[in-house]
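tool=predict chain=A
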Amino acid sequence: MSGPDDTARAERLAAALRANLKRRKQQARGRQADPTAGESASEPPGGGAPGEAPATPTPSRPDEAS
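tool=predict ok
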């Protein structure tokens, strides 16, 4: 099972994991340097999580308003 293809695959995987770790560390350093920069970019305009229902639902018809 461990042939030249497996070795090459393992090397590619190790390189990809190192690159991912390096990128995530750089992102974390950027967040620590400017903590307010990530807040507005990561949250949708209405607040809450993406796909989450709004806190006050808007009626679909005017007669449903209370």
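The mean pLDDT is 76. The two ends are 69 Å apart (CA to CA).
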